[in-house]
Design brief:
This protein starts with a strand and ends with a helix. The protein is of the alpha+beta class and 80 residues long. The protein has a domain of 37 residues: YefM-like domain (YefM-like fold). Helix content is 30%, strand content 19%. It has a 3-stranded mixed sheet with strand order 1-2-3. The chain contains 3 helices and 3 strands.
Length: 80
């Protein structure tokens, strides 16, 4: 595993991070003493899409678009 001092890490940080992201971890040392280890973060699998997750659990009435139409018209038109 590669060990770099703080100054070199600052100078080459982008390059070092690109390498770590590709599976090449490295250690940052201060005065020759290892201080931190930099490794890539493991990304969890993306969540599965939720579209269709309720399929088959309920039915929609054929007149769904017209349900409550009279009451809604009364509310908007001010008729009771």
């Amino acid at each position: 595993m590669k060990t770099v001092n703080i100054h070199d890490a600052k100078t080459n940080l982008s390059k070092l991070i690109d390498g770590a992201a590709k599976g090449e971890p490295f250690i940052i040392a201060k005065a020759g003493k290892p201080m931190v280890k930099v490794v890539a973060v493991e990304v969890a699998d993306a969540p599965k899409p939720r579209i269709g997750f309720m399929e088959g659990r309920f039915t929609v009435p054929d007149d769904f678009d017209d349900m409550g139409r009279a009451e809604i018209e009364q509310m908007f038109n001010g008729r009771r």
